[in-house]
Predict the structure.
Amino acid sequence: MSLPDTPTEMKSIQLSAGTVEYLDSGGPGPTLVFLHGAMKDALVWREVVAGLPARYRCVRPTLPLGSHRIPMEPEADLSITGLARLVAEFLDALDLSEVTLVQNHWGAAQIMLAEGCAERVSRLVLCACEAFDNYPPGRPGRASAAAARVPGLLGLAGRALRSPRVRHRFATADPSAGRRIPPDLVERWLLPFASEAGVRRDLAKILSERHTPATKRQWAAATDFPGPVLVVWAADDVLMPPAHGRLLTDAFPNARLVIAEHSRTCVPLDRPEVLIRELITLPSV
């Protein structure tokens, strides 16, 4: 069972948790680092990056969130704080500075702020992401977390997803996307989970973690960020509560809210033009 062709520009870097693949457009700057959510990879941003001027350096790591092709080390810390520190380590390893961190679905930035590891970040784009008490996000996220705690259940799901018909049905029912996911991305995102036990192990670590109310309050309180913050919230989201977009905007001292109409969580797929427009007009530090 083979994956679709990997983009020729795909690179990799060895970090403490394992090998992380990434795409780097190599523009002169400013530098944008794009973070994806569960069961997606760096290519979720391809339409956004394609629409940006060539001057931007667009860096897109594929994180160990279920669609990564290379499993992490067995002992890797894949708690949510461990993942946040992994992003910080990635920025350090590439020596990226004055980064605009653009996240979707996963709430990395708030946790990086809470952990004190966002020194290289100067601007934030929080796009339809986890926040406040919404970890994991929505009923589908909580159901996935419960499934990950049942021994062997993700293995059964992986075996089922070896069927092209099941993969198609799974992608069609993806609650994060409002538009049809392109077939090449369906294959790219689901085949690693279906074929690699290590990938399923990594995702199970992340999903099965339990977050206390005190920890969630700590993350929510990490809003002492002086740089520009753009909050992009999806009008038709079923994972991220509508009120969280406004609450996040009000929490930061220099934030602005944009509503992406006719979109669910995966704004980079549903409404890439909204993100392209807003990223180009995002104020400098």
In short: The CA atoms of residues 234 and 263 lie 5 Å apart. The first helix runs from residue 46 to 51.
